[in-house]
Amino acid sequence: MVADRARETVEAVKPAVSTATKAAGKAVNAGAYATGRQIKRASGMFSAFKEEYDKARKDDN
Description:
Blueprint: H1 2-60
């Protein structure tokens, strides 16, 4: 009796869980993509800073 009720509840919730799982997966992928894009931008900014720093350092000598 209790097992039957539990099985019914699980079956009733499965579609919502599946939808939520897919949405969470999409959100994680979007976040990972945005993080990677920001890291790429930051490394580009660091490279530009390092080049300017090296130029200034060579000019001082």
